[in-house]
Amino acid sequence: MTIVAHPRLALSAPVRATVPEHVEMLDTETLAEFVDAGGDARPCQHKDPEDYFPLIGSKPAKPESKRYIEEQVRARQLCQDCPVLVECRELALRTRGGRHGVWGGTSEWERVNIRTARLAETRAAKAAA
Ligand code: SF4
């Protein structure tokens, strides 16, 4: 399952809603330890934390807005070279603390979309069982 990028976004790769098996098998605590172990190799350790929370204190930008698109592009750029990007994204998807800001190369709305897609997939699988 993949989340298709917003049609107005000229992005090189869509954000995948699926998770590699080795990440999916980790419990949330282990995931958090894994992300922490990224240490100084994580780009966010060398940037202003506020760069990762562009919309804090306000509602997330609407998906059709220019602000949203800018955030999407920026999210990918901030985390692009992170060695624990996939793990960080999964942790953000699972935890309340990851509801706001940029985590794992995704914005808030992007993660809402991923959660929604996952829920739909789970419901479809249950209905088919
Ligand atoms: S994916 Fe982004 S937010 Fe997560 S640890 Fe890496 S640089 Fe930081």
Automatic annotation (TrEMBL):
Alphabetical UniProt keywords: 4Fe-4S, Disulfide bond, DNA-binding, Iron, Iron-sulfur, Metal-binding, Transcription, Transcription regulation
Cofactor or coenzyme needed: [4Fe-4S] cluster
4Fe-4S Wbl-type domain span: 43-113
Pfam families attached to this UniProt entry: Whib (PF02467)
Entry's localization field: Cytoplasm
GO molecular function ontology, one term from the record: DNA binding
The keyword Mitochondrion is assigned to this record: no
GO process annotations (BP): cell redox homeostasis; negative regulation of DNA-templated transcription
Listed InterPro entries: 4FE4S_WBL, Whib
GO-annotated cellular components: cytoplasm
Family statement: Belongs to the WhiB family.
Name by which UniProt lists this protein: 4Fe-4S Wbl-type domain-containing protein
